[in-house]
Design brief:
An 8-stranded mixed beta sheet has the order 1-2-3-4-5-6-7-8, with helices on one face. The chain has 8 helices and 8 strands, in the order E-E-H-H-E-H-E-H-E-H-H-E-H-E-H-E. With 231 residues, the chain is of the alpha/beta class. It has a single domain, classed as Alpha-Beta Barrel (TIM Barrel), CATH 3.20.20. Helix content is 30%, strand content 21%.
Length: 231
C-alpha cells in the first residue's frame, strides 16, 4: 500500500461515525474533474507514509475513533489491501471503502471476508460515456459487476455521481439510475473547481445549477430509499 495522506479526525467522511481517513497514492482512472491530483498523478506524489505509522496511531485511538475510511486514489489496485484492512479490523474499527468499482474481484473478496462495513462506489457515467469521463479505457462489465455485488452484499453502501455541466447531462443521470436500479442509496455530488484538479482546464467548468439539482431531486427521490444531493 502506498499511503499519501492521513487525516486523523473526521466527522463527515463516514456517515454517523467519528473516523480517521487514509488516502492511498495511485489510481487507474484519470477523471478530469478529480480533486486529488496529488494522489492520482505520480509527478505530484509526496513521500509515502509508512503503514506502521498509521497503525500505531490507530492503536492508541481505540475507543475514541469509531471508524476508518480508506480512499484515494483507488485503494483496490493494491493487492495487500485485505491484509492492511484486517489489521485495522482487529483493533475493532468499522471500515469504509471508497472505490471506483473497477476491481470487482477485490470488492467481492473484501465483502466475503467481512473486511468492509460500508462501501461508497463512484458511478462515473452511464456505461457508454465511461471512457470519456475517466480518461482511460474501462472494462464496463467490471463496473456493472461491482454494482451488482454491492446491491446483493447485505452491507451498507452508496452509489454516487459527480456532475459536471457539459459532460454529464440530466439524461445521463437517468441512464445511471437505470444502471443501478434497485439500489438503496444514491448521491449526486455537484462539481466545484479547485486548484488541485487532475485536468487544470476544468477550472473553467461548472457544476449543475441549483434549479437543475432541485429538479433532479424532485424526479428521483422516490426511486431510492435514500437519495441525496450534495451541493
Amino acid at each position: 500500500m502506498k499511503i499519501g495522506g492521513f487525516q486523523k479526525f473526521s466527522l463527515i467522511d463516514y456517515p454517523g461515525k467519528i473516523s480517521a481517513v487514509i488516502f492511498v497514492q495511485g489510481c487507474n482512472f484519470r477523471c478530469h474533474y478529480c480533486h486529488n491530483r496529488e494522489l492520482v498523478l505520480p509527478e505530484y506524489f509526496s513521500k509515502s507514509i509508512p503503514e506502521d505509522e498509521i497503525l500505531d496511531f490507530l492503536s492508541v485511538r481505540k475507543g475514541k475513533l469509531q471508524g476508518v475510511v480508506i480512499t484515494g486514489g483507488e485503494p483496490t489496485i493494491f493487492p495487500d489491501l485485505p491484509d492492511f484492512i484486517y489489521k485495522i479490523k482487529k483493533m475493532g474499527f468499522y471500515v469504509k471503502l471508497d472505490t471506483n468499482g473497477s476491481n470487482p474481484d477485490m470488492l467481492s473478496l473484501l465483502i466475503e471476508r467481512k473486511l468492509v462495513d460500508f462501501v461508497a462506489m463512484d458511478v462515473k457515467a452511464p456505461p457508454e460515456k465511461y471512457s470519456l469521463i475517466t480518461g482511460t479505457d474501462v472494462h464496463k462489465d467490471k463496473i456493472i459487476r461491482s454494482i451488482d455485488i454491492l446491491k446483493n452484499s447485505g452491507i451498507y453502501y452508496e452509489f454516487r455521481t459527480t456532475v459536471v455541466k457539459d459532460m454529464i447531462s440530466e439524461i445521463d443521470i437517468y441512464r445511471i439510475v437505470n444502471t443501478i436500479k434497485g439500489a438503496s442509496r444514491y448521491a449526486i455530488q455537484n462539481f466545484y473547481p479547485v486548484e488541485t484538479l487532475v485536468n487544470e482546464d476544468f477550472r473553467r467548468k461548472e457544476g449543475f445549477s441549483k434549479d437543475q439539482l432541485k429538479s433532479i431531486e424532485k424526479k428521483l427521490k422516490a426511486k431510492f430509499p435514500q437519495f441525496i444531493v450534495r451541493s
